[in-house]
């Protein structure tokens, strides 16, 4: 590495597995390595995006903080989940995707050496952005059990210290599909309240919940509206990955700083994409419920098909984890064998948390059940188990 800020960033691994699968150009390969989906975006979003291409106003840097209509829709969307109201003019900024929003927030709140608590496992891209922002990631352990994942509250308490500036929590979390319970959210909120720290809430998959679970937005908890910064995007819920549109919604006290960072970083968003994003947030026919039902069906199929293997059930999201180390196979080798012998592309969780490197991730958002029918046989062919 030529600069120190990159020394603790190993990458995310998904790119290498995706490139290897692409190079084989074999349509029989199950693409379980990357967060794509085959389910279509809302029709209204596609129509409005087509119209924006011919609209000269969309071919502009302005407005730097995002279209007014989109900020209104995003502020309303977050406010509805949180049971409060946000001012779209002063408490909402449009970002060039959710992860750009996360980075902008971290750059707005961290001094070099400040600590940020994340769950373990969590998305490597979140950990990497803490490093890029000059922060130090600390980890609260997620514990797998027969029904999914739970947050180790003792581990959370041990991770929060005098240098902690923020908790960065995603729900449903990726790659595990962990969804905090009410009690877990209250424990998270208590640390924020007691120590006066920020909660950065990655809500990219907020409504992608299984088993009849309901959204618990942390800003709805007592005292948390002024401590919670919500970052969302159209990528997952609305199946609009290629639009690269997200939003940051938070208390006015921090949003001017976020605005300054946003202007100094990506500057503005994808002009021809914002109208479509606003349409997705506004239409009654957003397709989210139907998409969640389909993703849950795929998840349930994989859990049943792989029931004799150490797969941990997700409570939402697009992916699940399998503990290949319990099978005596390192995840990197398990990934290599799966692609070579089973025609399954899957990413090892190296760099996705201190204890995450025992897991391999299966993404179920992009492969329909009829393509997954022989998944157990493919795994047997690859691993001999």
TrEMBL record:
Key words, A-Z: Aminotransferase, Pyridoxal phosphate, Transferase
The UniProt record lists the keyword Transferase: yes
Cofactor requirement: pyridoxal 5'-phosphate
Domain Aminotransferase class I/classII large: 39-371
Molecular function terms, GO-annotated: transaminase activity
Matching InterPro entries: Aminotransferase_I/II_large, Kynurenine-oxoglutarate_AT, PyrdxlP-dep_Trfase, PyrdxlP-dep_Trfase_major, PyrdxlP-dep_Trfase_small
PANTHER family attached to this UniProt entry: FI04487P
Protein's name in the database: Aspartate aminotransferase
Natural source organism: Pandoraea vervacti
Lineage: Bacteria, Pseudomonadati, Pseudomonadota, Betaproteobacteria, Burkholderiales
């Amino acid at each position: 590495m030529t600069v120190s800020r990159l020394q603790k960033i190993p990458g995310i691994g998904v790119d290498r597995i995706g490139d290897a699968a692409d190079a084989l150009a074999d349509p029989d390969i199950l693409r379980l390595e990357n967060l794509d989906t085959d389910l279509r975006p809302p029709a209204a979003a596609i129509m409005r995006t087509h119209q924006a291409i011919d609209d000269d106003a969309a071919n502009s840097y302005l407005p730097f903080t995002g279209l007014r209509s989109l900020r209104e829709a995003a502020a309303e969307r977050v406010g509805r989940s949180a049971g409060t109201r946000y001012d779209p003019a002063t408490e909402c900024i449009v970002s060039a995707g959710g992860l750009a929003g996360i980075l902008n927030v971290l750059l707005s709140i961290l001094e070099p050496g400040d600590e940020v608590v994340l769950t373990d496992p969590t998305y490597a891209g979140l950990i990497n952005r803490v490093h890029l922002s000059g922060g130090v990631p600390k980890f609260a352990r997620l514990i797998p059990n027969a029904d999914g994942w739970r947050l180790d509250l003792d581990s959370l308490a041990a991770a929060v210290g005098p240098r902690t500036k923020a908790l960065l929590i995603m729900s449903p979390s990726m790659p595990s599909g962990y969804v905090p319970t009410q009690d877990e959210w209250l424990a998270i909120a208590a640390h924020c309240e007691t120590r006066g720290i920020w909660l950065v809430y990655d809500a990219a998959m907020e409504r992608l919940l299984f088993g009849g679970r309901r959204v618990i937005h942390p800003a709805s908890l007592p005292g948390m509206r002024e401590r919670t910064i919500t970052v969302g995007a159209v990528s997952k819920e609305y199946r609009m990955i290629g639009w690269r549109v997200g939003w940051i919604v938070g208390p006015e006290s921090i949003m001017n700083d976020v605005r300054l960072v946003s202007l100094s970083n990506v500057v503005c968003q994808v002009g021809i994409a914002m109208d479509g994003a606003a349409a997705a947030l506004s239409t009654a026919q957003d397709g989210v419920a139907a998409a969640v039902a389909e993703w849950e069906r795929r998840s349930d199929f994989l859990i049943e098909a792989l029931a004799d293997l150490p797969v941990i059930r997700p409570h939402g999201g697009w992916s699940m984890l399998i503990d290949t180390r319990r099978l005596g196979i390192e995840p990197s080798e398990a990934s290599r064998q799966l692609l070579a012998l089973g025609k399954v592309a899957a990413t090892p969780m190296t760099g996705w948390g201190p204890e995450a490197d025992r897991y391999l991730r299966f993404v179920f958002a992009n492969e329909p059940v009829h393509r997954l029918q022989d998944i157990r046989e493919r795994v047997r062919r690859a691993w001999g188990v």
